[in-house]
Amino acid sequence: MEFALVLPLLLVVLVGMVQMGAVLRDHLVVLAAAREAAREAAVSPDDALVAAAAARIAPCGAAADVSIGRSGGQGEPVTVSVRCRQPLAVPLVSWLLPATVSLEGVATFRQEFAPSGWPP
Amino acid sequence: MRPHWPATAAEVGPSAHHERGSISLVVAFGLCLLALLALGIADLTRLADARTRAQTAADAAALAALQQMVRPITGAPSPAEEASRFASANGADLVACACVEGSLEATVEVRRSVPVLWLLDDGTWVSATARATAEPPAIQGTATPGVPAEPEPLHLFSP
Questions:
Q1: Is residue A120 part of a domain?
Q2: Structural domain that includes position A86
Q3: Residue A77 CB coordination number (10 Å)
Q4: Nearest CA of chain A to the CA of B20: how many Å?
Q5: Cα distances (angstroms) measured from residue A114 to each of A44, B28, B34
Q6: For B39-49, what is each residue's pLDDT tens digit?
């Protein structure tokens, strides 16, 4: 009888764990997308290529919000941040938690080239 | 005087009493196990996150060091300093840098602290290594005259 009382709670916890696993996976993939995008930004001055690199890997694809911060020319860092708003898909939990979770990955690489238009 | 909880078989019956107690125990034990599991998963999550970020830092550091070794910029810091700079920029510390000037290969090791953990010790470090290599410079005479030589591509190997 007590088990019947605890069972719904137990189910919510279990389903929550499954949802957390999915979010963790997406989080790690967003980090990887930021790394790839920053690597692309280090070798290519074309922001469209950087966004494409992020979209290839990010769990939200082309919906990824990519921002590129260049702080100079060759030898200076470029920082790329990739942000995804991922929906929480598992039932029950989306009722308890916000509908989407924002995931962000940031990576900084050394620019291997002088971007076009640099120095300004 | 007996304790106040049901004492005689006639009041509850031995089997009913036994069942009630054991179910509570199972539930309590199960919840404890679940809580422990949740804490363990939280730790693993942090470790996985730190590990991924450390790998990014190692990749950036190895490539930064190799670039300064292969295509040095005058006035720029040494390869090891560049590795350290880009490890820090990605939130990790440089532990070792096998980056001798004149070589075509840079291997770095970085580490990153995992601040708060539930089951494991606080202040655990995760480390990551990466190796970057450059292709040997093109043999003289193979480049097309008038066309600027392409810089040697850099390759990255991270486990």
A1: no
A2: 2-110
A3: 21
A4: 9
A5: 9, 63, 54
A6: 888 888 899 99
CB B11 within 8 A of CB B20: no
**How far is the C-alpha of B117 from the C-alpha of A14, rounded, in Å?**
21
B59/A13 CB distance under 8 A: no
Classify residue A115: in a domain, yes or no: no
Compute the distance between CA of residue B36 and CA of residue B42 in angstroms, rounded to an integer: 10
The whole model's pTM is what?
0.80
Q: Rounded distance, CA B117 to CA B7, Å?
A: 46
- Considering the domain boundaries, does residue A47 fall inside one? yes
From A3, A20, A28, residue closest to B52, measured CB to CB: A28
Strands A100-110, A77-87: pairing is antiparallel
Enumerate chain B positions whose Cβ falls within 8 A of a Cβ in A.
Answer: 23-24, 26-27, 30-31, 34, 37-38, 41, 45, 48-49, 52-53, 55-56, 59-60, 63-64, 67-68, 71, 73, 76, 82, 85-86, 89-90, 151, 154, 156
User: Is ipTM over 0.90?
Assistant: no
- pLDDT tens per residue across span B116-152: 788 887 778 999 999 999 877 655 444 455 555 555 6
Residue A118 lies in a domain: no
**Cα–Cα–Cα angle for A101, A105, A106, nearest 5°?**
150
Q: In chain B, where are the structural domains located?
A: 50-157
